[in-house]
UniProtKB/TrEMBL annotation:
Record's protein name: DUF306 domain-containing protein
Taxonomy, superkingdom: Bacteria
Organism: Planktosalinus lacus
InterPro entries, per database record: DUF306_Meta_HslJ, HslJ-like_sf, Hsp_HslJ-like
Sequence ranges assigned to domain DUF306 in this UniProt record: 35-134
Length: 146
């Protein structure tokens, strides 16, 4: 009977740890997939495609940054499959007359985000509450001198 219980215990530990490892692999793949810079197209249904707003992700450090017309936003994020959660978002504090709406809306969208999709270079963030579309962006293809 002891042997049977030992086998059951070992099997349960193995199954639990393998599920954890599978989840880690999936989350790492999602992180790597998201890595890079994106040109922001829309935020909270407002078009910003004519502006040079960039949202960047550093998968190694799980860090996010955004460049706006005036200030920079930065913070951390975590991914669990296609759920994404942004930590506290900080910003530089310059004042730029008429150029600060985008950064406020980006910060608000990121704080409300609960999930994302990334298909063919098109990034979309969805609300944690009602899955409404909060932000869209297009992957910026990195070019090198080769």
């Amino acid at each position: 009977m002891k042997t049977f219980l030992s086998i059951i215990t070992i099997a349960a530990i193995f199954l639990t740890s393998s599920c954890d490892e599978t989840q880690k692999v999936i989350n790492t793949a999602s992180n790597v997939q998201l890595n890079g810079n994106y040109k922001i197209n829309t935020v909270l249904e407002e078009s910003y495609s004519s502006k040079n707003l960039v949202l960047g992700f550093d998968a190694l450090n799980k860090a996010m940054n955004a460049t706006t017309e005036c200030n920079n936003l930065f913070g951390s994020y975590t991914i669990d499959l296609y759920a994404i959660n942004f930590g506290d978002i900080a910003s530089t504090k310059k004042y730029c007359e008429g150029k600060m709406d985008a950064e406020k809306e980006i910060a608000e969208a990121l704080e409300k985000t609960g999930s994302f999709s990334l298909e063919e270079g098109q990034l979309k963030f969805f609300s944690a509450n009602d899955r409404s579309l909060l932000l869209t962006a297009t992957k910026i293809r990195e070019t090198n001198g080769n």
